[in-house]
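Chain X:
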Amino acid sequence: MNDDMDKFVQELVASIRKNDVFGSVLKECMRSKETWDKIARRKVGGIVKRVFSDYFPHLNPADSVYIEGEGTPKGWKKPYDLFGSRGVYPDIGILRPERVSIELDHSGWGRTEKPGSRFKMALAKASFGYLSGDWEYCYVFFHNHSGRSLKEYLNREKEKTIIEIYEKQFHTKIILF
């Protein structure tokens, strides 16, 4: 990943944390009864567009940023129909200067499975974006609000090895919120 894109992702993550975006998603879920996914895409998508404009002022976000539910930009290329599905459509896609997908996922708020199960599924799902050839890099922004910590498991040797394989071989990284 080029340095500008890496800095963009770092600033995006810092902005989401600083503004407690996922906390605000939960509050709106409780207030509005709208789904976590829709609210998260709207809130994170707004920050993506703002940070994208700051880092890439020469690129038009309307042509370069895809947010599920907002239509497709001019530069959109229909994803490969992997295993006969309609393709790997991310929650958020950056089309330029590099093709980067961002999946938003969570554990908690109406979810009965353990956070580790959701974490594994989110990581695997995102990697298909890279494996399909549609995206150069894939990220999962995972909000664990289940009340059960994942941190102790992420420091074990086997989990570290798996995460390293995903990052190096599948260009897929999960960021825990």
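Chain Y:
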Amino acid sequence: IYALHNDLYADAHRVFDKHKDVTTFWYVQKVSPEAFSKAALAANVSVTELELIANKLVHLRDRLHFHIDGRDVMEPSRVWKIAKLSGNEFIKLTEGTHEILRRMYLEMTGPDSPVPNYHGDDIGKIICAYKKVHPDAKISI
């Protein structure tokens, strides 16, 4: 569970890094400000709020995830208390970011691809065909 948790935040640290030499969410805003603002407005997402939430990640990155600060070695949970990042805020950050980028992508590429309807009616045939090729497979209908 800790590995999944840490990977989740490690990826978020990369996405929301503000270093001038990295290509992140903020870079997209910088290079395409009009499309970015249009997408954020259409999605009803406050970029200011996303930025405030993302700023909380810096504390976690610098003191716990990418760097282990000596002040926090014995009590890493203290870093979370100081950051004051809630799960709901993290969800708002990631979902808001996704929606802005999704809208920008669709504006550039056209309509969203429909998800095909699939009800699994053919699963029995698929399993039988697989079993023919792999008779020792531990799978049954």
